[in-house]
Amino acid sequence: MSHSGWTTDLTKLNPLGQQSAWLTKPYILSKALKRVSNTLTVKVLDARFTHAFDDEYPILHLQKNDIPFVRQVLLVGDNNIPLTYGRVVITPQTYKAHFQDFENLGTKPIGETLLYNNPEAKRSGFEFSCFESNDPLCQNIFAHLPQFTAQDLWARRSVFNIKGNPLLVTELFLPSLPAYVPEQSNVA
User: Fold this and answer.
1) What is the CATH number of domain 10-173?
2) Is the pLDDT of residue 26 over 90?
3) Residue ranges of the domains in the chain?
4) pTM, whole model, 2 decimals?
């Protein structure tokens, strides 16, 4: 699959207010999701070595014969309602360098567990896209969530680099996601 509609300029895509807030505001998505849901669990849909999508190879500097580790998850909120879909593409070198971390991840969010509290992890800027409902990635998600068929999905992605070892994190925002709630400041 190839999806060429990624851009760093969100104004080119013209998302509505709620989508725009989710796409740009939360640096740590799982932390922001906990502000709109009392519970947040990770449901692993798939985690294995498999081919990446065509547009994922160049961003990770992979060759076509490289087979990355791909982890696909749903972040599920209150009443077992799926809020977001996450796809992490881990290069073979990154997986080998951090094998134990990935093997022990289980149903924990990758960001909070391995990335955000790691001073050696650096994040790129975001790229944004809107996937049409007939896109193969949406079709894959809809296979797990038939209640969302025929709906376009907004997404963002960024590359994390841990000591020169890259991985790509793509987050798609599902229609059941509540309105974005900003973090409360501690100013009196």
Assistant:
1) 3.40.1410.10
2) no
3) 10-173
4) 0.91
